[in-house]
Every structure is written in C-alpha cells, then in structure tokens.
Amino acid sequence: MIPFNVPPLYGTEEEKIHDAIQSHKICGDGEFTKKCNQWIEVNTGCPKALLTTSCTHALEMAALLCKIQPGDEIIMPSYTFVSTANAFVLRGAKIVFVDIRPDTMNIDENLIESAITEKTRAIVPVHYAGVACEMDTILSVAEKYGLYVIEDSAQGVMSSYKGKALGGIGDFGCFSFHETKNYSMGEGGALLINDEKYIDEAEIIREKGTNRSQFWRGKVDKYRWVDFGSSYLPSELNAAYLYAQLEHDKEIYNDRMDTWNRYNAGLQDLKEDGKIELPFVPEECVHNAHMYYIKVKNIEERQNLIQYLKENNVETVFHYIPLHSSPAGLKWGRFHGKDCFTTKDSERLLRLPMYFRMPPEYAECTINTIKKFFARNR
User: Chain-centre distance of CA 63, in angstroms?
Assistant: First the structure.
C-alpha cells in the first residue's frame, strides 16, 4: 500500500532528542525551543514566535490576546479544520462563515466586507494547501473596520504572498507542526506575534498566567501568577525533533516540491481532457508543496476513485466536511450569503499521497492508477 502520509524524519532527530535529554532540560523553553522560535522569526520576519503544543493552542492564544468575548463575531471560511472555529467558540464567539473561491479553496476576499456587523472582531483567513489568501484585500477591509487579522497558517510554513511569509502578515499567525505537516514535532505549533506590544502578554498566557519568562530574563526578581493563562508550552523533546528538520528546511522543501511537480506534470492530460481539475497557484503566491489534490466531477465519482485507488494499493483521503453543515457549526455559527462553492467543491476534492522522501515511483503509480480509472470509465 502506498501510504497517504509518512511523518517527516530527516535522520538526526534521535541525536537531537538525546542532546535535549543530556541537557537535563526537557520541560520546554530550553535551547531547542529557542532555536525553533528563532528559525520562525528569521524565516517570517515576525518580531516574536512562541512554540506551542499545537496550532489549535496557538489559535486559542490569539483569541485570548484579541480579548474575544461572548457575542463577538469572527469571520472565516467554512472549509477548514475544526480548530479554526473552536478557538473562538471557546471564548463564546459566534462564527460567521463566508464562501470560498473555487480556484484556491481559500476564503473569497470579496465577500468578507458584506459579512461584517457591529459585533465583528476578527477575520481568520485560512491558507489552504499552503497557497496564500488574497491578503491585501483582507488587510484593507480589516483596517477599514478596525478588525484583527489572525492567519491560520497551519499548512503555510515556508509559503509566501508577494514576498511576505505566511503567518507574518496579519496581527497574528498560527503554524502547525503536526505529523501530517511539512515539518513536524508529532503534535505542535507556533504563535507568530507581529506586533511587539503583545509579546509580554503572550508569554504570560503561554506560561500558565505567570511572568516566568520575564523572571528568567531578569526583568523581575521573582515570578508569580499575574493573569489568566494555560499550559501551552511543548516539551523540549518535541522541539528537538522539530529542529532536526528545520535545520534542513530547504532540502525538505525541495523534495516535496519535486513530488508536487511530478503530479502536476503527470496529470495535465487529464486536466486538458476535462476529467479533473488541478491546484491553482496565483502568480503572487509561492506555495510549499504541502499537499497535492485533484477535483473530480462530483462526490460519487470521488468515492469511486478512492475505492479504485484503494483496491490498487494507493491510499487517498478527502477533507473537510464544511463546518457550517456540521452539528457544532449549526449551533455556534451561521453562513453568510450563498454557499456556491464550499460544499460543492469540498465534495469533489481528493488528496493524493505526499510526504518527505516519497519514492518517485509511488507518485508515478498513483498517476497511472488515476489514468486507468478514467480510461475504464469512458
């Protein structure tokens, strides 16, 4: 079976973890956590990055920093993972879902302004597949109405928009280092703080509401409970695993891009025949080869293709069930305007196997199996 995903493993992770153990500092915020934070800051230009236990927790921290309150409204796409909404629902907010663009599967930036009410507090663009949303328009709308912009860049590490790194464009950015991502620590994430005025408060929230970080820097003579917070700090062992990959970021990026380009070239004829649609990357965007997906005619054809690929030892997956049609989405959210593309296109999308050091013959086998499916169903 050609697996859909294999967690990234460069080969020096065990050595790094051993070093962390030998340092007698494994609870977090040791040298490897600091190196990971610095890598993010250097590669995104954000003033401060804080490694977290997940992208979910990075989003929760962003909601806390934005002082989201019960009754506030948050605008986001419905085509996203549940964490994007949960972070704000936990603060009592109402989620306002907006339709997506069918070309990028990102939020339609031209529909955001009409969804704004006096209760709107933030816009949460989700950079699907590591391809940037139209951030200039989103930032302009946010500035006009005095709204926060929180980038859900879970899939966007090493991607950019007009030369600016994703996660480093809005007020806050949130990365994921889950095992399905380009760079992984098993479970993990990072909060990118793009306005220095939030740094101290973010450190307090991340350190269970204490000013411990300021204490270790010598800014206070003792650390104490000063505000609300929680335990968002990951283990140093996880950070060590991640840093082994960040040291080789370009090699991992190039390897995944080779697979992405192999898929894109190999499936062009099916696109030209009108059998499938392939990913679209706007000219101003640089993506990171996080995933390769195709879109077929409808949900029935997708299910048949998934089954055919499985029978031929190729594992594929689909996602997401649109949040606005899910039980929790119906309870805590509402869809603004018409659902022209969110549901229809989500039912057509299929993700192909993609991971670091995936053998080229696996991609070729996947391509050929897809072609056989459509040849069989002419």
Answer: 16
Write the CB contacts of 286 (distance below 8 Å, at least 6 apart in sequence): 159, 160
Same domain assignment for residues 235 and 257: no
DSSP for 287-315, please give it: ------EEE-SSHHHHHHHHHHHHHTTB-
In a shared domain, residues 122 and 211? yes
Cα distance from N-terminal residue to C-terminal residue, the chain: 26
The whole-number pLDDT of residue 214 equals 81
Q: Output the pTM of the full model.
A: 0.96
- CB-based contacts of 222: which residues, under 8 Å, 6+ apart? 215
In this structure, how many other beta carbons lie within 10 angstroms of the beta carbon of residue 88? 27
Mean pLDDT score of the chain? 96
Indicate the DSSP class of residue 157.
T
Domain boundary among 196, 230, 246: 246
Q: How many domains does the chain have?
A: 2
**CATH number for 347:** 3.90.1150.10
pLDDT at 220: 81
